[in-house]
Write a structure and sequence with these properties.
Elements: H1 3-34, E1 63-68, H2 75-88, E2 98-102, H3 113-119, E3 123-129, H4 135-145, E4 153-157, H5 163-169, E5 172-176, H6 180-183, H7 197-210, H8 221-229, E6 234-238, E7 245-252
């Protein structure tokens, strides 16, 4: 082999080795990105489409549990709402998407009993209306069972549970904006039901059905919550004493925005 041929052979071999190493690194990177342990969830509001058309909702990926708690467990309210959920999504007793739970009757008077009921079913997430006290302990137990997997989604509307516990365990917390008289009270807010409550719940169920994973607490979170709130303005909750803005606690105006 003469000198020119030797140089050509050496360069060709070098390029081949470099290409092989590059492919190997790309494969390793691809495996790292696709690994459940290294994948960082990023869900943008545009990823979740809420349409008026009724798709064929499926419970294959898990049921959506709707808990009717304090202020929302009166039959005059939940009977009509459950019928709307049945018409839109179907109920779990007929192979539909939504599993309604009435507190305290369906959990034998103890919210912690919901933990066992959830584990008996394939549940993708829980939406609470008027979450009773100690709900966040039950949610924390479910989170511990699936730590690092991020299976469950938790949406909390108008909770009566400890608010810090709710913030720590739920994707987000949404309640009505308090007036001056409410702020001067003992800290408990009487939740009221209006004509938009049922629509709010229906939008939340649709949203949860479309989500590929729990909502991350990023800059898009308020947009997600605003989409579920519809025409009502939503802002982040700000603590009056500290002035600190909450990461995932929002307040919703009580009057419709005038267009």
């Amino acid at each position: 082999m003469n000198f020119k041929k030797f140089i050509l052979f050496t360069l060709t071999l070098g390029f081949a080795c470099a290409a092989l190493c590059s492919c190997s690194k790309k494969n390793d990177a691809s495996q790292s990105v696709n690994s459940n342990e290294n994948l960082r969830i990023s869900i943008h509001a545009s990823d979740v489409e809420i349409t008026s058309a009724k798709p064929r909702w499926s419970a294959d990926d898990g049921l959506v549990c709707v808990l009717f708690g304090y202020g929302f467990n009166d039959e005059s309210f939940y009977s009509g709402v459950i019928q709307a959920l049945r018409d839109e999504f179907g109920l779990s007793d007929a192979e539909g998407l939504v599993w309604p739970v009435i507190y305290p009757a369906d959990v034998r008077g103890r919210i912690m009993n919901l933990y066992d009921l959830v584990n008996e079913r394939n549940v993708r997430g829980i939406i609470t209306l008027g979450a009773p006290e100690n709900t966040h302990y039950m949610l924390a137990r479910l989170q511990d069972d699936w730590e690092g997997i991020g299976r469950y989604r938790f949406f909390s509307f108008f909770p009566q549970d400890d608010i810090l516990g709710q913030e720590a365990t739920c994707d987000f917390v949404l309640e009505y904006e308090r007036g001056v008289t409410d702020e001067a009270s003992d800290g408990e807010t009487e939740q009221h039901i209006d004509d938009d409550t049922a629509e709010l719940l229906l939008r939340a169920v649709r949203y949860m059905a479309e989500l590929p994973a729990p909502l991350p607490s990023d800059n898009d979170l308020q947009i997600h919550v605003q989409t579920m709130a519809g025409n009502r303005g939503v802002r982040r909750y700000v603590d009056n004493e500290t002035g600190i803005q909450s990461r995932n606690h929002f307040v919703m105006e009580q009057q419709l925005v005038k267009n």
